[in-house]
Each structure stands twice: as C-alpha cells, then as structure tokens.
Design goal:
Distance between the termini: 63 Å
Largest sheet: none
Number of helices: 14
Shape: globular
Order of helices and strands: HHHHHHHHHHHHHH
Radius of gyration: 19 Å
Strand content: under 5%
Number of strands: 0
Length: 235
C-alpha cells in the first residue's frame, strides 16, 4: 500500500464530524465563499496527529494531497509542508517556498491560509524583499489577499510591525468579510506588540474601516476605548 493510500484510508477511519456541521462552519453552500470545497469530517487535532506519522512524505506525494478536492487532504499536505520547511536547511527551504507559491490556488480556504501562510511565506520573506505581499494584497483572488495579510503574523511575532499596517491600509476598502476579519486580526496582534502604533492607525482610519475589521482590531481594548472607535465608525 502506498503512503497516499494509507493516508486516505486513515482519514476515512478518522471521520467524526457530521457533514452539515462542516458545511455550515465553512460556508460551503451555493454562492458562498467555500462552495468549491469538500469536507469528509476529520478534525484538526486528528489531522495533526496523522501528519506526524507521515512527516517524511515526498514532495510528489504532498502534491497529490494538495491537488485534492477534499479540504482535509489539502490541510494535511500543508501541515506536512510547514513541518518540513521548519526543519529544512536554506536550500530546501527555498524549494519548499517555491513549491508553496506554485500551489497557491490550492490554498483556498481560510483554515488552509491561516495554517500555513505565515509559517512559509512570512518566515521566508522575513529577511527578504516583501514586494510579493503587496502584489498578493491587490490580487483579484480573495484567498491571495488573505495570504498577504496573514503572512505578516510571522513578522509581528518578531516585533516587525510596519508591513502589517501598510498592507492593512491597502485592504481597508476590500469587499470581502474574510479579509475584514483577517486584517482586523493582524491589527489586533500588532497592537499587542505596540499599542501606540495601533492607536495611531485607528485614529487615522477608524472612521472608514469596515466595521468587522474595526471590531477585531479593538477587541483587546478597554470598553470605553472600544466605544470611542465604534462611535467614530458610526459617523
């Protein structure tokens, strides 16, 4: 039995989540953002345990999983890819980064983006040119825009905040709720590192920020401060 066959069999044996629950949580209904996606019902902790068993999976086999229409198989592929990237030397890191970029179209749900973007793109670009992120932030593909802003979580964790605020400004006029949520999330995380930078950003942009983005960004503020910015948004 091949490794891929073993993985697929193990996934089938690990199904615990009803189909309708995944459909509601990930908005897979007709016309929704994930109508393209299929779930079989395996939870994330189980996927992470399976990934540990197949951590040495060859790149050609990771490619087979990442091409799958099944979300859990793509999720598994990305867990393994992240793990291999983190353990690799610089030359292999470059190869895995390029592999990830070549498969961006398959990183097409928020759980896949949030699992991997910061740990591969963010990590790889931390000490490199970041022009790619600004290109992705202006993509017609919503998932690529989310990849751009979520990638900066790696920078934030290294106390490097400027890129997050610059990309957030670009994404202020985005039409999609999933971008509003991701941008607000990254602003909130940046604010944990330097609240004065977040306050300066909000003082300038709160009145025009999407309400969801603003709510996420100010989530950790005292109630009086949250009310102040929400009232500015209501004007």
């Amino acid at each position: 039995m091949t490794q891929i066959s073993s993985i697929k069999k193990l996934l089938q044996q690990s199904i615990t989540i009803p189909q309708e629950r995944h459909s509601a949580f990930f908005k897979t209904g007709e016309g929704h953002y994930a109508e393209h996606d299929r779930f079989i019902g395996v939870n994330a902790p189980t996927l992470r345990m399976i990934a540990k068993k197949f951590s040495d999976l060859a790149l050609c086999e990771i490619q087979m999983l990442i091409n799958s229409p099944i979300n859990e198989e793509r999720f598994l592929a990305l867990i393994i890819l992240v793990s291999q990237y983190q353990k690799a030397d610089d030359q292999i890191k470059d190869e895995l980064y390029q592999f990830y970029l070549s498969n961006l179209k398959q990183v097409n749900n928020w759980n896949l983006v949030d699992l991997s973007a910061h740990l591969i793109i963010g990590a790889h670009l931390f000490k490199r040119d970041r022009a790619l992120l600004f290109k992705l932030a202006q993509s017609d593909i919503m998932w690529e825009r989310r990849i751009a802003i979520v990638s900066t979580l790696y920078f934030i964790r290294q106390n490097d905040l400027q890129c997050t605020f610059k990309l957030a400004e670009i994404l202020l006029n985005d039409s999609h709720d999933l971008i509003h949520k991701a941008t607000g999330w990254m602003l909130r995380e940046a604010g944990k590192k330097d609240q004065s930078m977040l306050v300066a950003f909000l003082d300038h942009f709160a009145s025009v920020m999407p309400r969801t983005c603003l709510r996420y960004a100010i989530e950790k503020f005292p109630e009086s401060q949250r009310k102040h910015y929400l009232l500015r948004r209501s004007v």
